[in-house]
């Protein structure tokens, strides 16, 4: 997965029950692995969709006193004006684009792939979708923010995903990534891509986690944007 870490374990995969004609690539949060999300997605799976949950490389994380843990890129702080790991974020996005390319080689066109993630993984999925030349079916961004937001021009983006469908979800009691981050992110997204295609859902009482209602919303979004083709 990571260019400088050949020992990163292979992604956790929920195979399609029949021929895979679509895929969901889902990126976990800081300190986690792909296994938990692969189990959650297995609970809402569609028979023609393959679910790929890669594991982040293990690296020291500044936010956690440089302790090594699975992380897509370094996180220096969690306030809106915190310094960001620009090189790490851009490298991580390239690694995700390589995963998408691998699925295209496997016979699933990129416009039949939804990219998603939770927290740090959701941030990376948003950044990747807005910077890639691969046309995607949609993005699922859970409890997250848009990294390197100052690097994007003001106004609409011109890339292949300027009309991409986005499902952004956030708990209203999130102590780690406050709901305000989600609200600011959705406003920024509306200035960059077609606002008619952005859905922002909040969940009462939900902290930095997921819930059944959110998983049902994700299931509906995947079914809408990755319908069966056969």
Automatic annotation (TrEMBL):
The organism of origin for this protein: Rhinopomastus cyanomelas
Phospholipase/carboxylesterase/thioesterase domain location: 11-225
The protein's name in its UniProt record: Acyl-protein thioesterase 1
SUBUNIT field: Homodimer.
Name of the encoding gene: Lypla1
One GO BP: fatty acid metabolic process
General function of this protein: Acts as an acyl-protein thioesterase. Hydrolyzes fatty acids from S-acylated cysteine residues in proteins such as trimeric G alpha proteins or HRAS. Acts as a palmitoyl thioesterase that catalyzes depalmitoylation of proteins, such as ADRB2, KCNMA1 and SQSTM1. Acts as a negative regulator of autophagy by mediating palmitoylation of SQSTM1, decreasing affinity between SQSTM1 and ATG8 proteins and recruitment of ubiquitinated cargo proteins to autophagosomes. Acts as a lysophospholipase and hydrolyzes lysophosphatidylcholine (lyso-PC).
The protein's Enzyme Commission number: 3.1.2.22
Keywords noted in UniProt: Acetylation, Cell membrane, Cytoplasm, Endoplasmic reticulum, Fatty acid metabolism, Hydrolase, Lipid metabolism, Membrane, Nucleus
UniProt similarity note: Belongs to the AB hydrolase superfamily. AB hydrolase 2 family.
GO CC annotations on file: endoplasmic reticulum; nuclear membrane; plasma membrane
Catalytic activity entry: 1-hexadecanoyl-sn-glycero-3-phosphocholine + H2O = sn-glycerol 3-phosphocholine + hexadecanoate + H(+); S-hexadecanoyl-L-cysteinyl-[protein] + H2O = L-cysteinyl-[protein] + hexadecanoate + H(+); a 1-(9Z-octadecenoyl)-2-acyl-sn-glycero-3-phosphocholine + H2O = a 2-acyl-sn-glycero-3-phosphocholine + (9Z)-octadecenoate + H(+)
